Amino acid sequence: MPQGSVRRAAGALALFVAAGALGSMPLSDAYADPAPTNVTVNTKAGLATVADTALGVNHAIWDSQLGTPAVSDLLGAAGVGMLRYPGGSYADIYHWQTHTAPGGYVAPNTDFDTFMAGAQRVGAQPMIIANYGTGTAQEAADWVRYANITKGYHANWWTIGNENYGNGHYGTAWEADDHADKSPKQYAQEVVAYAQAMKAVDPNIKVGAVLTTPANWPDGLVGAGDAGTWNQVVLSIAGPSIDFVDLHWYPGGGSEADALAKPAQIDDIMYVVKDQIAKYAGAGSSRIGISLTETNVGVGQNTQPGALFLAQTYSNMLENGVFTVDWWDVHNGIGTVSTIGGQTDYGDFGMLSSGNCTSDGTVCQPPMNTPFAPYHALKLMHSFVHPGDQLIRAGTDNPLVAAHAARRANGDLTVLLVNMDPAASHAVKIAYDGYTPSTAAPVVETFLNGAAGITSAQSGSAAAQSLAPYSLTVLTLHPATSASGAPKAPGRPSVSAVTDRTATLTWPASTTTGVKYEVYRQVGARSEQLGETTSTSFTAGNLTPGTRYTVTIVARDGSGRASWSSPPLTFATGSPATSTCSVRLTDTNDWASGYVGNIDITNTGTAAINNWTLTFTWPTPWQSLSSGWNGTWTQTGATVKVTRADFNTNLAPGATASVGFVGAYSGPNILPAAFTLNGNVCTVA
To answer: Which residues form the Fibronectin type-III domain (predicted)?
Structure first.
């Protein structure tokens, strides 16, 4: 069966459980009686609110089961709120009026009306991909007219094309594109034309443009004749005309451990995407939403790694405000068969079995529509988060155990615990900051390695649980006391007057009067209080130059009752306005896994700087130094130092020394923003 736009992305990130980390220790000893894992759940550290489109999957016109009652009922039971159509790269060859895809296979009974009937049965909204590759703006506008004017489907979400950066402009081609000009500029200009034509029919629809995902090819590349990267060019031109951006993420992984380490990159991925939108998309860019409409794991697509990856990826993306995460896909077909975690994996990117066999007939999948492990993970996600829930920060002190949490309007709290250890159970001790759970045993839903479904029981306590190897667990907790009468949460803060050491925060007031406001910084799963005030403005001081801060606001009344946390704000401090040195860092050549960096160091003071050493710290753990020149380069931990060479030892006032390096990255590449020269913090030009 065709596999749409799925590519088995290469690349690996070494993980703490790689075989080398265990040395020659016997596996039984390495995993024997691990110490309890400490879990922190922090209601003061609010994250995003869950949209009704949060849980999504892809549906494809080459899937004979598209829209059938059996599939629709399975998707409905898993809480699917978004269905994407007509299926990956097929979207750029698909013509909806004739229900044809020249060069591809179209299954019977998979036309748009059939899809919409299935979506309505599921209770999901459609995400429709307009044909950019071989279609026209008029064809897309006619589709909007048919969907929303003729049929009254209220189809609100429309993306212009699919992975259009894969049209050969960067040297690799899999996406159909009949345009003579395959540049991001041409794509962006066409997006504007599509949006105008489609919104002329229905001004209420939301139109999205395709972006590359940070640290995934061709992110960072600048094509011949282009003014910048794909994302920079597309956002600069199409930003004012779009309502959301569309990402795909296939991070790969050379092993189960590698693959399960990848979701740890998501906070940095989303930071970069939001920064690009703010920087390039023009005025009012904060209105632009973010969707992740394709993702899948690199190893163990049908078995427990797929389930664990899904739970982690959906949770991390939703915490960062993504309004939908859509698994690739419902059915896909058998691939390379292997054994993962003691279970047969069919190498099938589908969530449900296609019921087919290998070409030689030696291995066959379970019957059609049998759920694979990722389906059960999605169903468990439906228990974990409901539309309107506020996700909150949670974390652990064990890299093999992950935690996520959400709070509900009725006062309940849900906690998702992920044990990525394939060999050992882990006892967890759970502490709650800002929340007191009932002493009653919580409802515990669990999906175990190799299980045919989710089990549910009241067991353990809110403070202690045991996690089986390779398992997903959701706890549903009730509060010890009613939260009625607590203040209403303040609105999302904004920031102004950001310097290297200070930032002024303002926020919409709580609708509850007579409250004070507590300002918190998120530090991992903990909250560090920056101060409190009775006004709706606060200037934070003693900040660190070139550092990312995520802050939230909590309202507290005179009785000590606290509100929900505000939505978070993330900002970065800058460099000093004046200093005795200035630094300019330029990414001069990028190849999506490394780059050449050039640093110009200028003496802006009145005295000579002799025997200089420049120091900076990588912003993420995914970055490292490969080599350098015009100085002696070293890296210790995340800190990089370059010491003068014989020919540039002294910097007279106004003089500049240029040094360079090759940097490597296996995750989002965030350039350093703070530099010290002989201990003095420099201005960054």
So the answer is: 489-576
For residue 624, what are the β-bridge partners? Answer: 664
Q: What is the distance in angstroms between the CA of the first residue and the CA of the last residue of the chain?
A: 53
Nearest to 631 by CA among 650, 616, 608, 647: 647
Q: Compute the half-sphere exposure of residue 592: CA atoms within 13 Å on the CB side of its CA.
A: 17
Q: Whole-angstrom Cα distance, residue 64 to residue 581?
A: 65
| The 537-540 sheet, strands edge to edge | 494-496, 503-506, 537-540
- Give a three-class secondary structure readout of 182-195: CCHHHHHHHHHHHH
Token pair of 4 as six digits = 């749409």
Rg (CA), the chain: 26
In the Cβ-directed half-sphere of 513, how many Cα atoms lie within 13 Å? Answer: 0
Whether 319 shows a pLDDT value over 90: the answer reads yes
Residue 244 has pLDDT above 80, yes or no: yes
CA–CA dist 140, 112 (Å, integer): 13
Predicted TM-score (pTM) of the model is 0.94
471 beta partners? 419
DSSP result, 538-593: EEE-SPPTT-EEEEEEEEE-TT--BPPPPPPEEEE----SS-SEEEEEEEEEE-SS
Residues 6 or more apart from 18 whose CB is under 8 A from it? 255, 257
Answer whether 552's CB lies under 8 Å from 44's CB. Answer: yes
Tell me if residue 265 falls in helix, strand or coil: helix
In sequence order, which residues have a C-beta less than 8 Å from that of residue 338 and are 6 or more positions away?
A: 344, 345, 347
Identify the bridge partners of residue 680 per DSSP, sorted by sequence position.
Answer: 677
Longest dimension (CA), the chain: 80
Residue 158 DSSP label? E
Phi, psi of 408 (to 5 degrees): -110, 160
Burial (CB < 10 A; 0-12, 13-18, 19+), residue 140, is: buried
Q: What pLDDT, in 10s, does the model give residues 463-512?
A: 999 999 999 999 999 999 987 889 999 999 999 999 999 999 999 999 99
Q: How many CA atoms lie within 13 Å of 594's alpha carbon, on the beta-carbon side?
A: 10
- Quote the CA–CA distance of 250 and 306 in Å, as a whole number: 12
How many CA atoms, within 13 angstroms, populate the side-chain half-sphere of residue 607? 4
List pLDDT tens digits, range 61-116: 999 999 999 999 999 999 999 999 999 999 999 999 999 999 999 999 999 999 99
Look at residue 25 and tell me whether its pLDDT is greater than 70.
no
Q: Give 249's pLDDT tier (boundaries 50, 70, 90).
A: very high
- Over range 594-604, report the average pLDDT: 98
pLDDT at site 33: 54
Helix, strand and coil content of the chain, in percent to the nearest 5, comes to: 20, 35, 45
Residue 247: which residues within 8 A CB-CB, separation 6 or more? 211, 212, 213, 273, 290, 291, 292, 293
Q: Which residue has the tokens 């309505």?
A: 120
